[in-house]
Write a structure and sequence with these properties.
Layout: H1 2-25, H2 33-49, E1 73-75, E2 85-86, H3 89-103, E3 110-116, E4 119-126, E5 129-135, E6 141-143, H4 146-149, E7 166-174, H5 177-189, H6 198-206, H7 211-216, E8 220-229, H8 237-247, E9 256-258, H9 261-274, E10 282-289, H10 292-298, E11 300-301, E12 304-305, E13 308-312, E14 317-329, E15 335-346, E16 349-355, H11 359-365, E17 372-378, E18 382-388, E19 413-415, E20 422-424, H12 430-441, H13 453-461, H14 468-471, H15 476-480, H16 487-500, H17 505-511, H18 519-529, H19 532-537, H20 540-544, H21 551-560, H22 564-575, E21 595-599, H23 607-616, E22 620-622, E23 631-634, H24 640-648, E24 651-653, H25 655-661
Helix pairs in contact: 1-2, 12-13, 17-18
The structure holds 2-(butylsulfanyl)adenosine.
Length: 664
């Protein structure tokens, strides 16, 4: 089953990448949009069912379907090695014996650290200034992600005090658990594939071409080792970590010295139990010889040093009983089955329920009410049913049948084209409306203070609100007539609603709940179109021209703004005074009338920054080279667009020439 899914996922990814290339790079699409969308949603659904198979480079893990033209590759000044793993105390004792033999003495000590589950990063500081951030890649070459890591607040852009001219520091970029949960919540609301764990989320966030989006991802960093330095930096690992702290580099506080392997084992045991209390994920411990001279003596075997070992924790599981299976209705009408459990402690929290994702998943697991099940936390955070103990099943347990009617409004349900999801198709379903309103008023959207779920429940049930725009028609009398609503709190709600009228355009766009359009894509749209009116008029073609808006997003936006019901609500919103305009940031007319195509990687600039600069100076950006193109702005590793420009005799410029043109 899993193998089949794995193969299917692989083949879908290959097909999608091929069509992305044909569509975006060669401008020669071979399949209609609908077919492309079908491949995409098939992959998304499979990945949702097998989150452990999601890889950061999957087409679903991108902000949009647009292919990443890549980051510049950089060679590491010294190899970024990996670590050999152990899984038991005895294996740790074996490691210790090898160390003792290699050193010919028992006189050594260890440093025991948490193994942060993130992405290895090499930071290079020259004269105290951050000049490069590179991922591990294959160990000898990685991706230059300097722009993105500059957005991580924990990474100092300059170091304090007396530092070597060249100082390379290695460490882990990670996403705290809370940020990960929030990101996945957003993705879920936008019906995008979730990240399987914080590590994938961190890796995906680092690989975004738009550093502005990386900045929103709340990544953090711990330094844990030394790379190249122009002068010797320390004699022991412990000393180097102490020095890191002094010069402003964040070091994990849970670092312990151990004089022998039994102490090491004791520390590992303690963390195996306590790890869930941390607000970031760890997947084990790292045990390192402290003396840098002794490390030299031990050396490395192949890809891993002999002076270092990791101790990996086993995933925690718990057994519980499924008390019932509920069906919830989401804001776009998708029905999601949720299992309610006998409460059980798992990985640091009491788990009472878990999403079963969709009805195919119920079939696959064959989970029934009353069943005894094993649960695990995917990425140690999201609880999931992994196995049904069929031998313990009650003989009367009945297979769970997908509903034929919406459990809230009773309308007939429909199967999505791809067959995985079941939706309540009724536009007037109160459950959908409540979810939509909750999302609209949410902190990252219109941020309407005092308009919480309980109030929304009443507003919908009493028929006072039938769409977003009705919120702006509420008056003090209607509100004060509701339960537990005094005059003063009613006024607070009205004030919150009034205040939301001045939210920026991007927030309003995000609040509408357009499929796939969360705040990040909404910001891209707002920057491009600067008013709802203009977005309403945009064609699919215009939308796809925008960096990071792929065919799936373009179609979703276009369809939203061509639905008569949505347009009615938008008109009502505008009449009610909710009509934000994007601030104009146009700087000059220096590039007026000129069309640019940008290709390749431009050092220190993301693609969208460059495109924004072109637009800010009144130039036009196009994605394909033609005779009408005035300039091709080419960075490193520019591909077929550069060839085409040469064939057509279009003027090719580099970053320096471009900056001169705009007077920078
Ligand atoms: S030391 C040669 N220390 O684990 C050893 N690595 O599985 C250099 N990691 O690629 C790495 N926490 O990304 C070290 N405290 C820690 C670590 C750590 C997490 C990661 C690192 C490495 C991977 C190996």
């Amino acid at each position: 089953m899993k193998l089949a899914a794995e193969q299917k996922i692989k083949s879908l990814r290959q097909q999608i990448r091929k069509h992305d290339y044909l569509y975006y790079v060669l401008n020669q699409p071979r399949i209609p949009d609908q077919k492309y969308d079908k491949l995409f949603s098939e992959l998304k659904n499979l990945e949702q069912r097998h989150p452990e198979l999601i890889t950061p480079d999957s087409p679903t893990q991108r902000v949009s379907g647009r292919p990443i033209e890549g980051f510049e590759q950089v060679k590491h000044s010294s190899e970024m090695l990996s670590i050999d793993n152990t899984y038991s105390a005895d294996e740790l004792r074996d490691f210790d014996q090898r160390v003792a033999k290699g050193l010919g003495t028992k006189n050594y000590s260890y440093i025991v650290e948490l193994k942060i589950d993130g992405v290895a990063m090499s930071l290079r500081y020259e004269k105290g200034l951050l000049v490069l951030g590179a991922t591990r890649g294959d160990g000898s070459k990685g991706d230059n992600v300097t722009n993105n890591i500059r957005t991580i607040k924990a990474i100092p852009l300059s170091l304090d005090g007396d530092v070597p001219d060249v100082l390379e520091v290695r460490g882990e970029v990670y996403m705290p658990k809370k940020a990960f949960e929030k990101l996945n919540e957003e993705k879920e609301q936008q019906e995008q594939a979730l990240f399987a764990n914080p590590r994938n989320a961190a890796a995906g966030s680092l690989k975004l071409l738009d550093a502005k989006i990386t900045a929103q991802r709340k990544l953090s960093f711990f330094a844990y080792s030394l790379g190249q330095t122009s002068i010797p930096f320390a004699k022991t690992h412990y000393e180097s970590l102490e020095k890191f702290k002094k010069i402003g580099l964040p070091v994990n506080p849970n670092i312990k010295k151990a004089d022998n392997i039994e102490q090491v084992i004791e520390i590992c045991d303690q963390w195996e139990k306590r790890r869930f209390k941390l607000d970031y994920q760890i997947d084990g411990m790292v045990i390192k010889i402290d003396s840098l001279d002794q490390r030299e003596i031990l050396g490395a075997t192949g890809r891993a040093p002999r002076w270092c070992i990791s101790y990996k924790f086993a995933a925690e599981q718990a057994k519980t009983k499924v008390l019932s299976i509920d069906v919830q209705v989401g804001k776009t009408g998708i029905l999601t089955p949720v299992a309610n459990f006998e409460p059980v402690l798992l990985a640091g929290t009491t788990v009472k329920r878990a999403s079963l994702h969709n009805f195919d998943e119920i079939d696959r697991l064959d989970v029934r009410e009353g069943d005894t099940v094993m649960i695990e936390k995917a990425g140690e955070i999201i609880p999931q049913v992994i196995e049904v103990k069929k031998e313990q099943r009650h003989k009367d347990a009945k297979p769970f049948r997908p509903p034929v009617k919406c459990p809230v409004c009773g309308s007939k349900v429909q199967k999505d084209e791809d067959g995985v999801y079941i939706r309540c198709a009724s536009p007037s379903c109160p459950a959908q409306l409540k979810e939509k309103l909750r999302y609209f008023a949410g902190r990252d959207q219109m941020d309407i203070e005092n308009l919480g779920p309980a109030l929304i429940e009443q507003l919908v049930d009493k028929g006072l609100v039938q769409d977003f725009a009705d919120l702006y028609k509420l008056d003090i009398f209607a509100l004060a007539s509701l339960e537990r609503m005094a005059q003063k709190s009613a006024q607070n709600v009205l004030d919150g609603i009034e205040k939301s009228k001045s939210q920026p355009l991007a927030r309003l766009l995000a609040a509408l709940g357009i499929r796939h359009i969360g705040i990040q894509n909404a910001e891209i749209l707002a920057r491009q179109f600067d008013s709802i009116e203009k977005i309403k008029k945009a064609t699919v073609e215009e939308l796809t021209q925008i960096e990071q808006i792929g065919p799936v997003l373009a179609k979703s936006i276009y369809e939203y703004f061509h639905d008569s019901n949505n347009l009615k609500i938008i008109d009502k919103l505008i009449t009610a005074g909710v009509n934000p305009k994007q601030k104009q940031t146009k700087h000059s007319d220096k590039l007026a009338g000129k069309t640019f195509v940008v290709t390749g990687t431009l050092e220190n600039f993301s693609r969208s920054q460059i495109e924004q600069a072109i637009k800010d100076n009144s130039g036009k950006v196009s994605s394909s080279v033609s005779k009408k193109t005035d300039y091709v702005l080419a960075g490193t590793e520019a591909g077929s667009k550069l060839d085409k420009a040469q064939q057509l005799g279009v003027k090719i410029i580099d970053k320096k020439q471009f900056l001169e043109m705009i007077g920078k």
